[in-house]
């Protein structure tokens, strides 16, 4: 039997906008006999095992396996800022058996890299959000500042630029650091590291002055007093850090943002299959145990429709593209 997803992808490539309507009765007949999933499902992750994206992928894949009766297996394909994994999924069959868990870097990469082997806007099907996390500006405990105004004042009153850390070129900590520099009118020097862990080590030692880091990495050091949090990127104060103001409160509205995680499939997945997956994931994200597991990893669950997820990817592509241009960050 020919898969309805293959038919939908073929018609989609022909640009037949109304084709989905034309095959509704046919597709419903096929779907009645096609059970999903028919075999193990691969959730491809463009990051190494043990990181936030991998951890959240394993939480979701475990529950999908239990609910749908087939293994959902996490397949780590790190490298090239998660683009190796994305290309693999973009080239896969749109039958729902190869999916991609992405982070915000997916929306940033098109503005940083010239020779991407896929089209971020056209080669994927948005399925839904999974989680989001805020970022927080942190400084070493011994740095003689206690507020964001103190940090800005320090930067403006010293002769050399303040060094700030990030987990690597082009990630949200880097782009947020550059946006803060532009909005605050200060001089800073970006020090990229190969990951959040080595960046945090040098921050703790006072070798750099600040970092805008994700909550997963920063919170343990804030809690034990080795780092001071001066501002968060969330829309409201973070429940775990109620005394820490938001950037928005302090007059930096452009620094209100969150990172996100979500699920994509290859372009051409049928709307019925996308809806089924979105419903299953949304149900999982409302389970108390799953909410607790994701919070323990420093994030919050986020439920949304495929349309909402697709629109967020597009809006973030526009937002960070503008920051990259303003900051004159060179792509590769």
Q: What does this protein structure show overall?
A:
Belongs to the UPF0065 (bug) family. It is a single chain. By secondary structure, this protein is of the alpha/beta class. Helix content is 43%, strand content 19%. It contains 13 helices and eleven strands. Strands 2-1-3-10-4-11 form a six-stranded mixed beta sheet, with helices on both faces. Strands 7-6-8-5-9 form a five-stranded mixed beta sheet. Helix 6 packs across helix 13 (306-327).
Main attributes of the structure:
about 325 residues; alpha/beta; D-Maltodextrin-Binding Protein, domain 2; 6-stranded mixed beta sheet; BUG
How do the strands of the widest beta sheet line up side by side?
2-1-3-10-4-11
Number of separate helices: 13
Radius of gyration: 21 Å
Task: Supply the CATH architecture of the largest domain.
Answer: 3-Layer(aba) Sandwich
Shape, principal axes of CA atoms:
globular
Biggest sheet: strands, sense, closure? 6 strands, mixed
Q: How much strand? A: 15-25%
By secondary-structure content and strand pairing, the structural class works out as alpha/beta
Helical content (DSSP H or I, runs of 4+) = 40-55%
How many DSSP E strands? Answer: 11
- CATH topology grouping of the largest domain: D-Maltodextrin-Binding Protein, domain 2
- The top-level CATH class of the largest domain is Alpha Beta
Distance between the termini: 44 Å
**Low-confidence residue ranges:** 17-33
SSE order, one letter for each helix or strand: HHHEHEHEHEEHEHEHEHEEHHEH
The CATH H-level superfamily of the largest domain is: Bordetella uptake gene, domain 1
Overall pLDDT: 90
Work out the count of structural domains: 2
């Amino acid at each position: 039997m020919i898969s309805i997803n293959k038919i939908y992808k073929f018609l989609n490539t022909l640009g037949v906008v109304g084709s989905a309507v034309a095959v509704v009765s046919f597709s419903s007949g096929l779907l009645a006999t096609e059970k999903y999933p028919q075999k193990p499902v691969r959730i491809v992750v463009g990051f190494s095992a043990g990181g936030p994206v991998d951890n959240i992928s394993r939480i979701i894949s475990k529950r999908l396996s239990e609910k749908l009766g087939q293994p959902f297996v996490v397949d780590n394909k790190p490298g090239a800022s998660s683009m190796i994994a994305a290309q693999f999924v973009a080239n896969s069959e749109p039958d729902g058996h190869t999916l991609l868990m992405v982070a915000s870097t997916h929306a940033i990469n098109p503005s940083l890299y010239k020779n991407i082997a896929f089209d971020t806007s056209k080669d994927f099907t948005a399925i839904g959000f999974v989680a989001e996390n805020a970022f927080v500006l942190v400084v070493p405990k011994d740095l003689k500042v206690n507020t964001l105004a103190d940090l800005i004042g320090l930067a403006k009153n010293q002769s050399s630029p303040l060094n700030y850390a990030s987990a690597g070129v082009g990630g949200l900590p880097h782009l947020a650091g550059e946006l803060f520099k532009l909005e605050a009118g200060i001089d800073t020097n970006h020090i990229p590291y190969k990951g959040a862990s080595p960046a945090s080590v040098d921050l703790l030692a006072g070798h750099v002055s600040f970092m805008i880091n994700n909550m997963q990495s920063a919170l343990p050091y804030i809690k034990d007093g080795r780092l001071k949090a001066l501002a968060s990127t969330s829309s409201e104060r973070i429940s775990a850090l109620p005394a820490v103001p938001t950037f928005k409160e302090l007059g930096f509205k452009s620094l209100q943002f969150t990172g996100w995680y979500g699920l994509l499939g290859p372009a051409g997945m049928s709307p019925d299959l996308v809806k089924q997956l979105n419903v299953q994931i949304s149900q999982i994200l409302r389970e108390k145990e799953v909410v607790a597991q994701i919070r323990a990893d420093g994030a919050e669950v986020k439920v949304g429709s495929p349309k909402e997820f697709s629109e967020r990817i597009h809006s973030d592509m526009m937002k960070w593209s503008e920051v990259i241009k303003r900051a004159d960050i060179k792509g590769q």
